[in-house]
Structures are given as structure tokens and as C-alpha cells.
Amino acid sequence: MAQIIKVLKGTKDILPQNIELWHFVEKNAKDIFSRYGFKEIRTPIIETTDLFSRGVGDTTDIVNKEMYTFEKSERSITLRPENTAGVVRSYIENGMSRLSAPVKLWYEGPMFRYERPQAGRQRQFHQVGVEMFGIKQPSADAEVILMAEDFLKSIGLDDLSVEINSLGCPKCRTEFKEKLKSVIKPHLNDLCEDCQTRFDKNPLRLLDCKVPECQEIYAKKEIQEVIMSDFLCDECREHYSELKSYLDKMNVKYSENKLLVRGLDYYTRTVFEIKSNNLGSQNAVCGGGRYDNLVEQLGGEPTPAIGFAMGMERLISLLEEKEPQKLDGYIVSNNTQEAFLLAQELRSQGLNIELDLTNKKFTKQLEKASKVANYALILGEDEIVNNQVSIKNLKTGQQFTLNRHECFKNIRHENFQNNK
Ligand code: ATP
Ligand code: MG
User: Fold this and answer.
1) Per residue in 387-406, is it b (16+ CB within 10 Å) or e — as a string?
2) Which of 145-154, 292-301, 324-333, 401-410 bottoms out in mean pLDDT, i.e. has the lowest?
3) Which helix (H) or strand (E) holds 348?
4) Which long-range contacts (CB under 8 A, 24 or more apart) does 339-344 make?
5) d(Cα 29, Cα 34) in Å, to the nearest integer?
6) Is the C-beta atom of 125 inside 6 A of ligand 1?
7) CA–CA distance from 305 to each of 78, 132, 183, 278, 391 (Å)?
8) Which atom of ligand 1 is nearest to the CA of 288?
């Protein structure tokens, strides 16, 4: 026998028995985001590598270590590791700045990062996310956070905590970075290798290092004083406090976390994360923030923007499995042609119907029907002659015979009764 080929490490099949939860989450995303006026956008999975090195930032883990990049016809191409950069590219390329603000977009689809696979961390995973362009006021930040919470509640998740922080603007943040570097510098040789590189390239990221030795250093009094200091300029402080007052008014429970810096270079001012209290160490289900300079950085008109992305796999792992949906009817008959006629008629009216394609014994067909369907639609010789169907409710065992044209109405009606 030929050797079997296995799925790549860090990737997974989503099998038919699990698909209902995916459909459920996708439908809720579409419904809730639509309620807030967001429209779906689908951008390509491959983009030019430059988009991510300029858009996500070449000091980030994503760009430095995690991208799937290859050459084709002397072009460097990358499988998208996230979708904000792609949506921003599309926004600029399609002249969406001419539309009246805000432009509200959402997406869902696979992302690719070469990371160490573990529970809640894959190399191909899916994100559902949103981007809102054109509004600099904190009302946009509030609306996006409110919508994230609304969506998570709609799928039944409420044991969640929202964390927020403000990273300021390039002006106040630069000063903060310098202060931070000056107190950390004396300990530079004791930091982990990653932190030593971050020190020059992306000092904010020092704060979310997970290495205990680094954590110990950052817990020192003089360093904590800088971390906890209020470094925001007047405009940024005002923006942040207005956001908090919106959240208070809307009754969103949140905590402020000064260590929340997020991995990506493009964030300005508001950043936020939503964590589940029921996941292990990979507990972030949603990450987002404001990125007021990215559109300009990628060649567009200066345009403020804010968005978030959620990990579909992590969301789904928090939900209870759903019973697979059964067919409305399974036709039991030894006359395959008649069975087909009935099947097509009912399918055309929107019912989910299967029939036996191999003319098995009646009892075998009934057995199959009771496994896969809510109703057995029996077409025996008598029924065919009289233009009737016997309908057996496979839950209750009740059976009744109807004229063929009444069959659809009755299944619909009974299904409605059952689902009430
Ligand atoms: P983490 O700190 O968990 O690596 P991140 O900051 O890299 O997250 P983002 O880039 O903000 O994550 O992505 C948003 C969400 O996408 C995360 O909160 C998480 O739910 C999900 N996510 C990110 N990377 C992965 C992955 N490799 N596998 C599964 N889900 C992921
Ligand atoms: Mg990550």
C-alpha cells in the first residue's frame, strides 16, 4: 500500500462533524457586524511581502520569524499572517477614502504564521476581524469594543475580561521609550536574547516578555515607576479618558493594563485585548487597537483607523459541541425513480432530503433514515399507486399517510413545532 500523507504540523482539517459551530460563529459575526453597519470584504491570501514588512513592521515577531514567504517569477510573496495590512491596501487601492467616513469592513479567513504549534496556537488558523476607517474620535474605539463584546455574547461567551491601554502617539511615546530604555539599560546584559534585540528595535515590547528573569528585572522599583507613569500628552490623555467614559456609560466592564502593548508596530493610542477565563495560557480571544498612521505609511491619505481580530479556533474551543443537524427527510423506497422525483420536488422547496441510491432492503433503509433524518418518507407500492407518502416521525415513531402534495407543508409545520 502506498504511504499515507498527513496534514502538515500546525494545520488542521475542519471536519463535517465540527462545521456547525463554525457556521454558527460565522453567522453571528455576519449578523452582529451588519447591525453596526459593517460590510464584508474578501482580500487575497497571498500579498507582496513588502506589504507586511512595511505594514506590520519589520521589528515584529510576525515579520521576523513567522512569515511563510516564497519567490515566484522573481517576486517575493507572503501568505498573509494577519489581515489588517491587506484590508488597508485594498482601502487605498480601491479609493475607499472617497466614500463618506466611516468606512466599516469585516473579514473572516485563514492566516498563516510559522509558530510553535500548541493548544490554541496553529500555523494555519482563522481570524474574524473588523476595520473602521476615517474616525479619529474615541467614539469609534468605543463602538468597536462594544461590538466585539456584543458578538462574543451572541455566541454565548460572557466569562471574558476586556483590557485596555493607550500607547499614545509617536510624540509622547518616543519620550516614554527613551525613559524606559534609560532605566533598563543598566540591566541590559541580564535580559533574554529577544529582549536585547527589542531594546533597540521595539522597546515597548520589552514589557510583555514572558521570561521570568526579565519579568523580575522589570518589577524593580525604578523601572515600575516609569512603566506606571502617565506619559500621555494632553490630546492622547483626553482621547483615552473619553473612551473610558463611553465604556462606563455603555456598561462595558474593563480593566486598564499598562503592560498591554500588543505585538504589532502599527498601533497608536487605544489598544485592547479580550481574554477568556476558560482558556489556558493562550487565553486571548481578541486583540485590537487604533492605527492612525498605517494608511499613510502604506501610501494612502492620512486616515485614522481602528480594528480588531479574533481567533476563530480559540472562540470555537470555548463553545459546546452542537448536535449535527439532521436531514429533514430520508426517502425509503424500492422504486428509486419515484424516490428521486419526490426528493427533487422537496429539495426544490428547500427541504434537506436524501434517498437510498442502491435499492437496499426496506428495513436497512429505515435504519439509515432513523440515524440521519427527522422523518422517514415512505414510498411503498401502495403509496406510489395512490400518489401518497407515509411519513414517519423518527423521534416519536408516529406515522401517518398523506397526499403527496401535502408532504412538504406537513414536514415544515412539524419541524416548526419541534423547534419551538
Ligand atoms: P498571541 O499573543 O496569542 O500570540 P497575537 O497578539 O499574536 O496573539 P493577534 O495578531 O492580535 O494575536 O491576533 C488576534 C487573535 O488571533 C489572537 O487574540 C488569537 O485569538 C488569534 N491568534 C493569533 N495567533 C494565533 C495562532 N497562531 N493560532 C491560533 N490563533 C491565533
Ligand atoms: Mg502571536
Assistant:
1) ebbbbbebeeeeeeebebee
2) 401-410
3) helix 336-348
4) 339/379, 342/377, 342/379, 342/389, 342/404, 342/407
5) 8
6) yes
7) 24, 5, 33, 31, 57
8) 11
- Mutating to test ligand 1, I would choose from 9, 82, 121 the residue with most ligand atoms within 8 A of its C-beta, which is 121
Q: Are strands 373-379 and 327-333 parallel, antiparallel or unpaired?
A: parallel
What are the backbone dihedrals phi and psi of residue 137, each rounded to the nearest 5 degrees, phi first? -70, 150
How many whole angstroms from 121 Cα to the centroid of ligand 2?
9
* Alpha-carbon span 229 to 177, nearest angstrom: 12
> CA 133, CA 105: separation in Å to the nearest integer?
9
pLDDT digits (tens, 9 = 90+) for 344-358: 999 999 999 999 999
Q: What is the pLDDT of residues 314-335, one digit of tens each?
A: 999 999 888 888 999 999 999 9
Q: Is the pLDDT of residue 386 over 50?
A: yes
Distance CA 326, CA 329 (A): 8
Dist. CA 126–CA 148, nearest whole Å: 16
Q: Cell 471574558 maps to which residue?
A: 160
Query: Is the CB of 309 within 6 Å of ligand 1?
Result: yes
Q: Pairing between strand 268-276 and 305-311?
A: unpaired
pLDDT, tens digit (0-9, with 9 covering 90-100), for 360-380: 999 999 999 999 999 999 999
Q: Which candidate, 121, 126, 111, places its Cα nearest to that of 9?
A: 121
Query: Which cell numbers in the block locate residue 141?
Result: 474605539
The proportion of the chain whose per-residue pLDDT surpasses 90, expressed as a percent, equals: 81
Which set of grid coordinates corresponds to residue 404?
403527496
Whether the pLDDT of residue 226 is over 70: the answer is yes
Is the beta carbon of 148 within 6 A of some atom in ligand 1?
no
Task: Quote the ligand 1 centre to 82 CA distance (angstroms).
Answer: 9
Which mutation among 306, 314, 318 tests ligand 1's pocket best, with the greatest number of atoms within 8 A of CB? 314
Strand, helix or coil for residue 133: strand
What is the CA(263)–ligand 2 centre distance, in A?
Answer: 7
pLDDT at 420: 40
Residue type, 55: G
User: How many beta carbons lie within 10 A of that of residue 49, not counting itself?
Assistant: 17
Q: What share of the chain is helix, strand, coil (3-state, %, to 5)?
A: 45, 25, 30
Helices (H) and strands (E) in the chain, counts: 16, 16
